[in-house]
UniProtKB/TrEMBL annotation:
CDD domains xref list: SAF_DH_OX_like (cd11616)
Occurrences of domain Aspartate/homoserine dehydrogenase NAD-binding (ranges): 24-135
Protein name: Predicted homoserine dehydrogenase, contains C-terminal SAF domain
GO MF entries: NADP binding; oxidoreductase activity
Record domain Oxidoreductase DRL-like catalytic: where: 160-321
Length: 430
């Protein structure tokens, strides 16, 4: 992202702005809108949310007068608003994806099915698509990336989200010629596999969060999803099914993340992992065989080696997302995206005893949580990707708490677009 600020300034001086269409005006979306109003060379031309008042609120919190906010029910109405220098709000994301002036669409819904619909429509209509929705990416990201490449647009997961922040560190280290051994993130609370919207409701209200989102953090699903995205973008494998999750301080990471025969916890290198105790940071563990570089790293207080940690102590979530939109538009490149065929999968596990005939409820709910495993292991077991789980998926067999849910144990939602994309991905990519 070198010189991105200069490129945005050039756009601003030329009178051109990158027109962004945001879909999803929740906690992440609202912060994103305000941040863009601090930036040069780009504008939030439209905000879509099924709660129209929340879309309007995103603008008013950024200082926009209500007189300048226009409700658009069609793409032509949105286009007219842009021509007049107004800001459009809508309940229909198709209005955004079909609108000619929109250059980049940002999906901030966090819902796998909706994210698949938004991404597909954006690509079809020639828009770059930024996914602040890792759940969709780990389910059908490879096929969406392939479609975007064919259409000549950029498909990318967002900067600021932990996968994007990890990938930026990975690219930094890899570009310098270091051998990257581990890519990972911190977790700020121990895994509670029984967390659900009811058990976290009070905390969620205090933090002004959606209880389902907080539950997905606490039950570990979000971490598994994020590291699946990193795995698919780098080719790194999970350390094991569900990962290890050691407790450690930053300065301890180079010693912990060594092979077992070297006194560490790893069976192999080129893996993804998380650590309790270093949140909200992200990290990569690197090494070098050259003595001159090791001597300089010691001089620079990076430790004695042979492994070293590059650590970023923050990730700014949706505040950074506009940088991915700018990078897609200006440089035509993603922040992070799948390399090709999937490497890892986040698979669904029963959060409680499930009975035949029972409906599932998806990520952050009462019925399932997700754990990471290799794609090959998941395929052999016919394990169900958690991104395919929604309220229309019905159990056809009893599954005990803690057991992996397989395709054979459910009746899937055949009306689901993400399911159809997943099947296409399996046929074409893997």
């Amino acid at each position: 992202m070198l010189n991105l600020n200069s490129k945005l300034l050039e756009l601003e001086k030329s009178g051109k702005k990158i027109n962004i269409g945001l879909i999803g005006a929740g906690q992440m979306g609202i912060g994103l809108v305000s941040q863009v109003f601090c930036m040069k060379g780009m504008r939030i031309a439209a905000v879509c949310d099924i709660r129209l008042e929340e879309a309007k609120k995103a603008y008013t919190l950024a200082g926009v007068s209500t007189d300048d906010i226009v409700t658009a029910r069609t793409a032509s109405e949105l286009e007219d608003a842009v021509r007049r220098g107004k800001y459009a709000v809508t309940e229909d994301f198709g209005v955004v994806t079909k609108s000619i002036p929109i250059d980049v669409v940002i999906d901030a819904t966090g819902v796998p099915e909706v994210g698949a619909q938004i991404a597909l429509e954006s690509i079809y209509n020639g828009k770059h698509i930024v996914m602040l929705n890792v759940e969709t990416d780990v389910t059908v990201g490879p096929i969406l990336k392939k479609m975007a490449d064919s259409a000549g647009v950029v498909y990318t997961v967002s900067a600021g989200d932990e996968p994007g922040a990890i990938k930026e560190l990975y690219d930094f280290a890899d570009a310098m010629g270091f051998e990257v051994l581990v890519a990972g993130k911190g977790k700020n609370n121990p895994v509670d596999l029984e967390a659900n919207p009811d058990s976290v409701r009070d905390e969620a209200l205090k933090k002004k969060m959606n209880p389902k989102m907080l539950a997905s953090f606490k039950d570990g699903t979000k971490t598994m999803v994020e590291l699946t995205a990193v795995s698919n973008a780098t080719g790194f494998l999970p350390t094991k099914r569900g990962l290890i999750g050691p407790f450690a301080k930053v300065e301890e990471l180079p010693e912990i993340f060594r092979l077992k025969e070297e006194g560490g916890i790893l069976d192999s290198y080129r893996v993804v992992e998380y650590v309790n105790g270093v949140a909200p940071g992200v990290f990569v563990i690197v090494t070098t065989k050259l003595e001159a570089i090791r001597e300089e790293l010691a001089y620079l207080s990076m430790g004695p080696g042979p492994n070293y940690v590059f650590y970023r102590p923050y990730h700014l979530a949706s505040i950074e997302t506009p940088l991915s939109a700018a990078r897609a538009y200006i440089y035509k490149e993603p922040t992070i995206a799948p390399k090709g065929a999937p490497v890892s999968e986040t698979i669904a596990v029963a959060k409680k005893d499930l009975k035949a005939g029972e409906h599932l409820d998806g990520i952050g709910g009462f019925t399932v949580y997700g754990i990471i495993d290799t794609y090959e292991n998941a395929k052999k077991e016919r394990a169900l990707p958690i991104g395919l789980v929604n309220k229309n998926v019905v159990m056809t067999k009893d599954v005990k708490k803690g057991e992996v849910i397989t395709y054979d144990a459910v009746k899937l939602d055949e009306s689901s677009l993400i399911l159809q994309l997943r099947r296409l991905q399996e046929r074409l990519i893997g």
